[in-house]
Amino acid sequence: MPTPDAPTGPARGALLLCRAVPGAVAPVAHLLREPMRLTRAGDDWSVLVPEGRPWRDGAEPVDRVVTGWATALAVGAPWPVLALWWDADHAGFTLAYGFRRPVGFVWLASGVPAGEDEALRTFAARVGLDPVLDLQALEQLTKPDLAADGAARLRGLLAVLARVGVLMPPGLTPGTPADRLGETAALLPGSLPVAWPGLREAVAERGTVDHSRLGPWMPWAGGPRARALALAQVAGGVPLLAWGLRRRGGGWGWAAAGALLLAHGALGLAYDLTHPRD
What we know:
Strand content: 5-15%
Structural class: alpha+beta
Order of helices and strands: EHEEHHEEEHHHHEHHHH
Oligomer: single chain
Number of strands: 7
Distance between the termini: 54 Å
Number of domains: 2
């Protein structure tokens, strides 16, 4: 388990990649109640840049925090979330997708792999990579390479993900301290703060969402699919929240996921009731 950084050690950081446009990601990410910046990372991808307060101000390991965030985001939306993280001792990723078990891989800071190859195969299948050529490229990241540290392994992962449309904005590079990532993200064209006051700004972006494949499922769509998704989220969020609260040790992430799912479903139902379609 990664340990907290020493004061003179490398700063920890993380990035959250979502396979959706910013207009679809923002309302869900807002429910995390964490200050972040949001911008595009390709035509069909967005990247969230967290300030990192939970691991900079406290003793929470960065991997545990971002895995909880990714899980919460993924169960509250119909798209996958990929968390990239790094600290003084390790670097790695976690992919969350709906209610499936999250899958990930870890490298030591030196670049030595410390994960299971089977996780890479599952990861490749879930993000839609080619099961032969792309998987071979992923497997190269588990081979010995004295010139590749943990951050370089994550950059190699992003290079493979370019084949499914990931295009990281300039300056948002694994291994960069969280504060510098935030400063860079704030200067990018089209970058948005996640801490929005509510749906009003999200609705202003709905032209972007309504023309995407996700449009009919979003709260402001007001159609039968959006209503059905909201009901399903409420129905799934309540038992997940209760189970997470009852579970001793390690249940906080599932409780957060249940709370997010419940809040997002309730948000969709509230919007459907207060904004009836003609």
